[in-house]
TrEMBL record:
Pfam families: Acyl_transf_3 (PF01757)
Ranges annotated as spanning the membrane: 67-88, 100-119, 131-149, 213-233, 253-278, 285-303, 323-343
Protein name as it appears in the record: Acyltransferase family protein
Organism of origin: Streptomyces asiaticus subsp. ignotus
Biased composition, class Low complexity, residue ranges: 11-25
Keywords tagged on the record: Acyltransferase, Membrane, Transferase, Transmembrane, Transmembrane helix
Domain of life: Bacteria
Length: 364
């Protein structure tokens, strides 16, 4: 007798499920293309910095050189700091950004502060000159200032009136002689408004500066600034433009520091707008050098200081019009070469060290 119909029906045996396929890792996003306008602006600003340093020893015998020096010093560092603030807009305290702040700003500060000190000991025949990381020497003040400014970026992002607050801090610093020289805090505080303003600028603000009307209006404005500087040369202390001293240290009453803070901020911003109005928007032969401006900035300082230590400016012909033109051309050529990609590759170990050994790996 067939009893198969009496047995319970067993479910069909399923094949063992295969493990789910592992998702392919998402491709890393392509790096954002660099903006030619800002690379051009950074290169041209660093050229002006080098020119200003080259003109400094020429001021004693040439009122015209002094007027150009004063005009350039009104805006070249404010423009550079404004752009630095603009590119710090997204900075926060994320580990990867803190790491870049350490490797790209703090470490170069330490290395170049030590290198400049040994250079001064050798070139200036001053073997006892001390190494002090609290007292930036020559150009390294910008690195320590940038470090402080970026660390405080989250605070400036939430402040209600950030530029007004920064200007108030700068004005108070300008009339406070007791701040001292540690970390060059006078410069950190007095240049702060330009960084804060850059933090809050948007691309459309730069587009407004590049309008044709602004460009042509900038020509008479710059001409008037040079004429005014020529008039002011024997009447004004150029140390105001360095922003490293208080009003009292410059021999003025305390309230002059407040007035000069706001006056210089206004003049600097007007000339910065005039400068940015003429910066090319398209790629130029020097656009690639914009990525190496910090290299040119720090490295040209050895030649700028060496020219004083070795008395290069003692030749009388350098103080004549043709000599001044030659000095200017040499300064432009030197800083251009120091911004070039081969120099970047050679000094990347000091300017952009990876330092993976110094940081803990993040899980996941």
């Amino acid at each position: 007798m067939n009893v198969s119909h009496l047995l319970p029906t067993l479910p069909a045996r399923r094949a063992p499920a295969s493990p789910p396929a592992k998702a392919a890792p998402a491709p890393s996003p392509a790096p954002k293309p660099r903006d030619a306008f800002f690379d051009n602006a950074k290169y041209l600003a660093i050229v002006l910095v080098a020119m200003g340093h080259a003109w400094e020893p020429l001021r004693g015998g040439s009122r015209a050189a002094s007027a150009l020096y004063m005009t350039v010093y009104t805006f070249h560092m404010p423009a550079f700091i404004l752009i630095s603030g603009y590119f710090s807009r997204n900075f926060d305290l994320r580990p990867d950004r803190l790491k870049r702040l350490i490797t790209g700003v703090a470490v170069p500060y330490v290395l170049f502060e030590v290198a400049y000190t040994f250079f001064k000991r050798w070139a200036d025949d001053d073997p006892s000159y001390p190494i002090s990381l609290l007292d930036p020497w020559y150009l390294t003040w910008f690195l320590i200032a940038l470090f402080v400014w970026r660390l405080t970026t989250p605070l400036w992002r939430i402040a209600r009136w950030p530029v007004t607050l920064a200007l108030t801090i700068a004005a108070l610093a300008a009339c406070s002689p007791n701040i001292g020289d540690d970390l060059d805090l006078q410069r950190v505080l007095q240049f702060l408004p330009f960084f804060v303003l850059g933090l809050h600028m948007r691309p459309e603000h730069f587009r407004l500066m590049r309008r044709r009307a602004v460009r042509w209006l900038s020509v008479p404005v710059v001409a008037a600034a040079v004429v005014f500087a020529y008039w002011a040369v024997p009447r004004m202390n150029p140390a105001w433009f360095y922003r490293r001293d208080s009003a009292q240290e410059l021999g003025a009453p305390w309230w002059v520091g407040t007035v000069m803070t706001f006056a210089l901020f206004g003049c600097s911003m007007v000339l910065t707008v005039c400068f940015l109005a003429w910066v090319p928007r398209r790629r130029m032969w020097f656009t690639v050098l914009g990525a190496g401006t910090l290299y040119g900035y720090l490295l040209h300082g050895f030649l700028a200081k060496g020219s004083r230590f070795w008395d290069w400016y003692d030749h009388p012909w350098l103080h004549r019009p043709l000599g001044e033109i030659v000095v200017t051309a040499v300064a432009v050529a030197v800083v251009t070469a120091l911004c070039a990609p081969p120099v970047q590759r050679a000094f990347r170990f000091a300017m952009e060290p990876r330092m993976e050994w110094a940081f803990r790996r993040r899980d996941g």
